[in-house]
């Protein structure tokens, strides 16, 4: 049987089928490529985050050690002050004076910290406002 169509001319239905198949194949390849790209990007992000977490943990450890050294400095300085004052007026009185100074410092820090905490709002005000604006826009997108 001879082909009713001239060379190079195919029926319209055959052309649509070929185009649909090639478009489907192309979309499948794009989907696979995007999936692969996303997996690779996530893996890269994991590696980078692990590296940054290691750096941060070393820095945090050093800050913790510095805080402990500072604490020891203050404790030993307090003992030295108590001893110095105590050599003049008695060790009991010297220790009591240093303890009273630390009590005043603690009380002042407590009052300042409490007043700052009272100013803290537990609600994320700006986020709530933008969410309200988004909801309003979603109800009336043309306005």
Give the structure's gist in a few sentences:
This protein has helices at residues 12-89, 91-118, 125-139. The protein has 143 residues and is mainly α.
Structure description:
With 143 residues, the chain is mostly helical. It has one domain (12-139). The protein is built from 3 helices and no strands. Helix 1 (12-89) runs antiparallel to helix 2 (91-118). The longest helix is centred in the middle third of the chain and has 78 residues, at 12-89. It is elongated, with a radius of gyration of 37 Å. The model has no long low-confidence stretch (mean pLDDT 84).
The run of helices and strands is: HHH
Can you count the beta strands? 0
Q: What is the first-to-last residue Cα distance?
A: 66 Å
Number of separate helices: 3
Beta-strand residue percentage: under 5%
For the report, how would you describe the main beta sheet? Answer: none
Which structural traits does this protein have?
mainly alpha, 143 residues, 0% strand
Architecture blueprint of SSEs:
Elements: H1 12-89, H2 91-118, H3 125-139
Helix pairs in contact: 1-2
């Amino acid at each position: 049987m001879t082909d009713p169509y001239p060379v190079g001319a195919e029926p319209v239905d055959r052309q649509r089928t070929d185009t649909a198949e090639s478009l489907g194949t192309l979309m499948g390849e794009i989907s696979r490529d995007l999936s692969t790209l996303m997996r690779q990007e996530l893996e890269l992000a994991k590696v980078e985050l692990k590296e940054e977490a290691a750096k941060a943990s070393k820095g945090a450890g050093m800050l913790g050690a510095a805080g402990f050294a500072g604490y020891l400095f203050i404790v030993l300085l307090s003992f030295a002050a108590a001893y110095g004052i105590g050599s003049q007026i008695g060790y009991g009185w010297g220790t009591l004076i240093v303890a009273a100074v630390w009590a005043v410092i603690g009380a002042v820090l407590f009052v300042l910290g409490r007043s700052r905490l009272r100013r803290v709002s537990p609600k994320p005000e700006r986020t709530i406002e933008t969410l309200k604006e988004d909801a309003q826009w979603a109800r009336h997108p043309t306005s």
